[in-house]
Amino acid sequence: MASRTSISGALRTRRAGARFLADLLVYLVLGTIGITMVLPFIWMIGTSLKTYGEVLVWPPTFFPKVPQWHNYVEAWNFSRNAPFDVFFLNSIIVSASITIAQVVTCSTAGYAFGRLQFPGRDVLFLLYVATLMVPFQVTLVPLYLIMRQLHWVDTRQALIVPNLVSAYGTFLVRQFMLTLPRELEDAARIDGANVPIILLKVILPLCTPVLSTLAILTFASSWNMFLWPLIVISNTRLRTIPIGLALFTAMPEYATIGVPPYQLLMAAATFSMLPTVVVFLLGQRYFIRGIALSGLKG
Amino acid sequence: MTLVQRMRRAGGLRRQDIIWAYVLILPNLLGFLMFNVGPLVGSLGMVFTDWSIVRPPSFVGLQNFAKLLSDDILATALRNTLYYVVLYVPAVTALAFLLANALDRKVTGIAVFRTIYYLPSVCLLISIAVLWQWLYDTHTGWLNYILSLVGLGPVGWLSDKRWAMPSIALMSVWRHVGYYAVIFLAGLQGIAQELYEAGEIDGAGAWAKLWHITVPLVFPTTFFVLVMAFIEAFQLFGEAFVMTQGGPGYATTTLVFLVYRNAFTAFKMGYAALQAWVLFAFIFAVTLIQWRLAREHGYGFQD
To answer: How large is the ipTM?
Structure first.
């Protein structure tokens, strides 16, 4: 009996030892990859605070001797060719309008598709789902021609209006609304509520998770929009952040010098990342949920 | 209220429901038809035309299709895109899987690690590209500095034809590995813990458990990740536009790059539309395979 307990005890300590080693290994792996993930960002922020001379120095250093905070001010209102304050404002206007509009249009249509019966519903919904498979690049050229027809090329509405509606968002909201119990509406109907009241008072309050997810994903993707604004906007004053950044090094001011002013570029890159990073840190669980929901898309 | 009254009431509301349904859908439907379906149909029609924006389109039948088959640059772009897919997709999937397994251990501080790994994928893509462009810089870049410490280099990460595409792929792996790891993590957490305990009783070690329990059971997630990564990789554009402008030579000119150039610098609208459909064909093929497998093995992501 005594020997038995000591054997199991020994087994337990051996297992505990193995567990400790395994945990150590896990931390080692997680830590190494974590450092790899963070280093480029530290490099970016360090560089954004250097002088141009420090940028050029070899071997490169991580941090400046004296942090040049004014780089951020300089990058923010850089020049006539790269007004980052204007780019930033444009990006905010475009992303916010698209996000608000999509939350509205996707929740009304998602409700109709998911919880109301009307002739043509299933055919229409199939059409929505079918377009999910088609990459944006296929509609790119005709969409540009439509913008030309409307005389919208080089206007802000060209960035916003084609994105007011999203088949993916409609799909996302509809799938979520399908999971809500039927009895909710029946009870409200017996009390005499009509469709808009039910949608506003009963359904939408329960949809906060999916609508938050939709809002966050839409904001992030609008903030990242690159190919479409690259094509449809040529006026500097209407450019969004990604275009401004991408064309920064091609500015006439730098066409002649070898190394672009990376300290300013990195400062601009840093504050361009902030909005989505802040949104991510605040709404992390919705991002993660978005992943689970985007599984529906595949 | 009796059941009959309730039913009558519900029946009476139905016509009103239909009207409301159309009202609620209308704004969405208008936008959808005008900016999704319309351009889609237009794109189908355009592939049979020669259309240079300044002149009205002229019908050229299958001429664009003939050009497609003899287009050397298109062949190069396709090869580049596939090369990127081959470099990126398996690497990001395998790494994300391993990372998810490490994250799945119940050790303290996991949430912090998860946040850190996920962070690059929520940062502005173009900012990331600009940042890495400098990390990769041949003469002042940090990567070449590290290499010089061990007596190697300098490598022309973005200026050498052989390295440009792998360099972009490496950056993309860095950017997306955390995102896919979180997807894997959800898959791993769906595996019943009892299976591992049963395996332990049968004397399975860590590797045996990973290989015989985790890998097969997480396969639906693996497959999903592969498909997502493939679709994403096939649309590579912004990174290449910023970091290499499609070069050096044509080394990083991808399919989307070609669509962009043909449409908006060469103004061959019809031909560009057709090239976009080539992109669609690849993505559609992968989606079909996914559906097929999902149906055969009974794991639908649709449900």
So the answer is: 0.86
Distance from C-alpha of A10 to C-alpha of A6, rounded to nearest angstrom: 6
Q: Which residue of B has its CA nearest to A265?
A: B130
- A73-294: CATH class: mainly alpha
Q: What whole-number distance in Å separates Cα of residue B281 and Cα of residue B21? A: 35
The answer to whether A161 touches A95, Cβ cutoff 8 Å, is no
The tokens for A265 are 């570029």
Domains of chain A, residue spans:
2-72, 73-294
Give the alpha-carbon dihedral of A200, A203, A204, A207, to 10 degrees. Answer: 180
Phi then psi dihedrals of residue B49, to 5 deg: -125, 160
Phi-psi region of B109 (alpha: psi -120 to 50; beta: other; left: phi over 0): left
Residue whose token pair is 């916010």: A96
**All structural domains of chain B:** 3-46 (no CATH), 63-297 (1.10.3720.10)
Chain A CB contacts of B210 under 8 Å are: none
Taking alpha carbons only, the member of A41, A40, A71, A39 closest to residue A53 is A71
pLDDT, tens only, A68-93: 888 888 888 766 677 888 999 999 99
Rounded CA-CA distance B124/B56 in Å is: 38
SS3 category, B239: helix
Mutate to test the interface with B, among A131, A136, A141, A291 (most CBs of B within 10 A): A141
Residues of B in contact with A268 (CB under 8 A): 127
Q: Which two tokens stand for residue A266?
A: 């990195």
**Model confidence over A119-144: pLDDT tens digits?**
999 999 999 999 988 999 999 999 99
Instruction: Specify the pLDDT at position A55.
Output: 82
What is the pTM (predicted TM-score) of this model? Answer: 0.87
